[in-house]
């Protein structure tokens, strides 16, 4: 049908339609075949592409390993700093250091010098606590019993 119009159009309009019919758009040029090799690397053989893949994996592993090593270093430094701060705090408190002066149950003043060479168990409790104090006193009595056996 198209060829008939071209011929008729050629006769009727002096060949104008025929020329346009002959100028049909050309089919697009064929696209290059995309293969796995094209995606992995540009040109080269399959072993070259595999080598480049191995190189990329090695670089990725080295990069990830260095990030992990850096994180581990920073983590250990932080832990060491926290331990040092804790030791400094305990040194400031210095339990067992210094002197004290307290009143005993008879109203007599007692100091550290009165207890040199003996076990001392100081307990600061409440005057009235029905919940916690009995349990704590039971723990203290078991500690005293254990110390007596030693």
TrEMBL record:
Keywords: Copper, Disulfide bond, Membrane, Metal-binding, Transmembrane, Transmembrane helix. GO terms for biological process: mitochondrial respiratory chain complex IV assembly. Cu cation binds at residues 129, 133. The keyword Membrane applies. SUPFAM superfamilies: Thioredoxin-like. One of its GO terms (cellular component) is mitochondrion. Coiled coil: none annotated. Signal peptide: none annotated. The keyword Magnesium does not apply. Disulfide bonds join 129-133. It comes from the Eukaryota. One of its GO terms (molecular function) is metal ion binding. The chain crosses the membrane at residues 57-76. Belongs to the SCO1/2 family. This is Protein SCO2 homolog, mitochondrial-like. It comes from Notothenia coriiceps (black rockcod). The lineage of its organism: Eukaryota, Metazoa, Chordata, Craniata, Vertebrata.
